[in-house]
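Quick entry, no commentary yet.
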Amino acid sequence: MPDFLSFILFPYIPEQSSSDTNQRPYKRSPSREFEMQQIGLMRRIMQQAGPENCKLYITEWNNTISNRNYLNDSCFRGTYLCKKYRKFWIP
């Protein structure tokens, strides 16, 4: 049994396949509760697979996967992460 499981978390959801080859295979989630929904899904998967008592670590987490996004190089990124952390993990 592992000591912990790690996941990455970015606000994208898979797009339905289409014949358009220029279409991206994902789109941004419109949900403001996306992170909590995904963490709940991760916990349910862990319960079904067996390691439900393992620690869950989110090792990569941000509002975009792009490293060329100007918001990643601004105060916005720190503010975004603090806001999400406070909202979801501090009682």
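second:
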Amino acid sequence: MYFDDITYMKRALAQAKQAASIDEVPIGAVVVYQGRVIAQAYNRREIDRDPAGHAEFIAMERAARYLGAWRLSGCTVYVTLEPCLMCAGLMYQARIDRCVFGAFDPKAGALGSLYRINEDERLNHTFEVEGGVEEEACAQLLKDFFAAKRLARKKSKTEE
């Protein structure tokens, strides 16, 4: 872990909280290049009705526009939840240097839990991964969000 990982993960957590405020799954991401944040985003799948509306996917697209290049060499992507196959695949395609994530995702994680896309030597690019940074805060945000959803669903069923 690098010195600034916690600082940047806290920025990603702030993005995740914005997602929760609009009733999106609270996942946030930031992309850092040469020591500064060049892009940030939060989940927008529901609001945009977009299956690719994941926080890190959107942040990487914004970073590419900022840099004027599809290669995100030299970039680190910080995301509050371990990336899925789609997002890990985009990280590979974009040639990022590193991904730092908060909470592990045992059901869909592609950078350690279910797969290790970043280490697959059959691919022509590998990248560094650091998981578990600010893990408790990232996991708690998700737990609270889904607990509130379950409670609201239960309450609406009892009102029927």
